[in-house]
Write a structure and sequence with these properties.
Blueprint lengths: L13 H5 L3 H21 L5 H25 L10
Keywords: Lipoprotein, Myristate, Palmitate
Pfam families: SVIP
Organism: Frankliniella occidentalis
């Protein structure tokens, strides 16, 4: 009774049935790594998007200052003692 083996029902190997193809698996692993990185960056922050906007604004402000400094020439302040 029941002399059928499991290989009678499998068209491919057991490994092929359980895991997706290699490219799909790589994509899933890459997405999971990106999600973990985002979570680690946002750990302890109530609003990570706001922090990112502030960082971008600071960079833009710094770039503007560098641009104006290069246009006006030497803008460093020098102290002179009399």
């Amino acid at each position: 009774m029941g002399g059928c083996c499991s290989s009678c029902f499998n068209s491919g190997s057991q490994e092929e049935l359980l895991s997706p193809d290699l490219e799909t698996r790589r994509r899933q692993l890459a997405e999971a790594a990106e999600n973990r990185a985002k979570q680690n960056e946002a750990r302890g922050l109530s609003n990570p998007e706001k922090v990112q906007r502030k960082i971008e604004q600071a960079r833009a402000r710094e770039d503007k200052m560098d641009k104006y400094a290069s246009q006006s020439g030497n803008t460093t302040l020098k102290w002179q003692a009399n």
